[in-house]
Design brief:
The structure is a homodimer. With about 240 residues, chain A is α+β, with helices and mostly antiparallel strands. In chain A, about 55% of the residues lie in helices and about 5% in strands. Chain A has helices spanning about 20-30, 50-55, 75-85, 100-125, 130-155, 165-170, 175-185, 195-205, 220-230, 240-245; strands at about 10-15, 40, 65, 70. The radius of gyration of chain A is 18 Å and the shape is globular. Chains A, B: Its EC number is 2.5.1.18.
Chain lengths: ~240, ~240
């Protein structure tokens, strides 16, 4: 694929992992810009030399390699894509007004600082109670994001207004795992009775051409979580086994 | 002071705390741009209505209020100052090239993710061992930043090259506390035998007009740490008492 990209995307390679919410963000941003890229799936148990060389500090995916130069960390990659390809298809991911940019960065940062950190024990908690407690906290974080959506979108379809912005991409990357939370620990976190605007936003977001096929199915994430927990020596906790049957 | 600023800085208020490394970053950025601002010292035990209203999500300093609109989170504030005031005195804080911007954001993010998180137990660790272990890890993080300095500065005085950039501002905000670490727990972390380039950089950085007077003295930080530990119900651990006598 390399070299035949429309819109200036030649020389783009993404090192990723299908289940990683951070990788999904980078892929959505590349799609929004209409950029063609080579996607390489990494094996976290046997990381490639290219990954270790490209991200020697964190040794993590995603890494975007553009003309041989690596860019690491998902939010930095999304901003890089927006800044390095300003003249391709698709609206800018960050707004042009400095204050609007600061607000977008604030909520994008909130997703990483609060939503992701709160959610992690659902993935790798040691007890069922720990997972349920985390899921309850995730609902509270999403309720804050519901208010943020109200303010940022101003009645329009996305956090970015009429088009998808940084917060949409960053939060959107989480959707698969948020949907999977009910199967994993029995708590529905994407819940129209608690966060109706976010639930409607999530449906709109997942229906976008740039997003289709990137948010993994719940069943696949549940199986992945079981495998990862086994690999980490963690117990296979109920209720997701019950729900799967 | 409000209203008489040179260079377009009218209507700027910063809610801060003298000892906060995050607040220091914002103040350095404002100074680099030559902006005049009203500085309001907050009392963390009795936060102002303005702080609670301006940063309802985190309730933390710094908050920059520009023409009535709040900007929160130190790295977002620094970027906001750079983007909202492009035509005032001082070189841009972020480089113009998208790849160079991504690299600057990567190392700035590394300072928050690794240096700050590693350093926290020095401030509020429960045992002397915990503090010493944290200090040892801080040295390792600084050694990684030494290598980053070599690559980013390319033989010039700052991470940003000839002028101060995002990484300089973000890491520079930590310097007071890094210097104070030896007094607090007996481990010298700013050590010319281990990170000679960073030590020389720190001296250059602290000598800048935009920085002078903002990096607190070690004695004052040590006293502040004692008071905060007492407030948090933490034991007053050696060796900083010994060193102070």
């Amino acid at each position: 694929m390399e070299g035949d990209a429309p819109g200036g995307g030649e020389g783009l390679t993404l090192l990723g992992l299908w289940a990683s919410l951070f990788v999904i963000r980078a892929r959505i941003a590349l799609n929004l810009k209409g950029l063609t890229y080579v996607y390489t799936e990494e094996n976290l148990s046997d990381k490639s030399e290219l990954l270790l060389k490209s991200n020697p500090v964190h040794k993590k995916v995603p890494v975007l390699i553009h003309d041989g130069k690596p860019v690491c960390e998902s939010q930095i990659i999304v901003q890089y894509i927006d800044e390095a390809f300003p003249n391709v298809a698709g609206a800018p991911i960050l707004p042009s007004d400095p204050y609007d940019r600061a607000v977008a960065r604030f909520w994008a940062s909130y997703v990483d600082d609060k939503l992701y950190r709160t959610w992690v024990p659902i993935f790798r908690g040691r007890t069922a109670e720990e997972r349920v407690q985390a899921a309850t906290q995730v609902v509270a974080v999403l309720q804050t994001l519901e208010q943020a959506f109200k303010k940022c979108s101003k009645g329009k379809p996305f956090f970015g207004g009429d088009s998808v912005g940084l917060v949409d991409v960053v939060l959107g990357g989480h959707l698969g795992w948020l949907y999977a939370t009910e199967a994993i620990c029995g708590v529905k976190v994407v819940d129209a009775t608690k966060t109706p605007l976010l639930v409607a936003w999530a449906q709109r977001f997942c229906a976008l051409d740039a997003v289709k096929g990137l948010i993994p199915d719940v069943d696949r994430l549940v199986e992945y979580n079981k495998t990862r927990r086994a690999g980490l020596g963690l117990p296979l906790l109920l209720p997701y086994v019950e729900l799967q049957q």
